[in-house]
Amino acid sequence: MGIEVGGLLGLIWLIIVIWAIVKVAQSSAGGLAKLIWILVLLFFPLIGLIIWLLFGPKG
């Protein structure tokens, strides 16, 4: 049972990170800013997502 729960949580986390990357790509931020945010989200998923939610491009 532990593996199924871990797999489900991992899948949910992956969906959240992909959603954040799509939101960054659709934002009005400049190209370099988008690239940096996407790299932060890819290489530091937990911290990157928290930082993006607090300071990332809005809209």
TrEMBL record:
Keywords: Cell membrane, Membrane, Transmembrane, Transmembrane helix
Highest rank taxon of the organism: Bacteria
Compartment list: Cell membrane
InterPro entries the record matches: CLS_N (IPR027379)
Membrane protein topology class: Multi-pass membrane protein
Membrane-spanning segments: 6-24, 36-55
GO cellular component, one term: plasma membrane
Pfam families named among the record's database cross-references: PLDc_N
Domain Cardiolipin synthase N-terminal: 15-57
Protein name as annotated: Cardiolipin synthase N-terminal domain-containing protein
Species this protein is from: Halomonas fontilapidosi
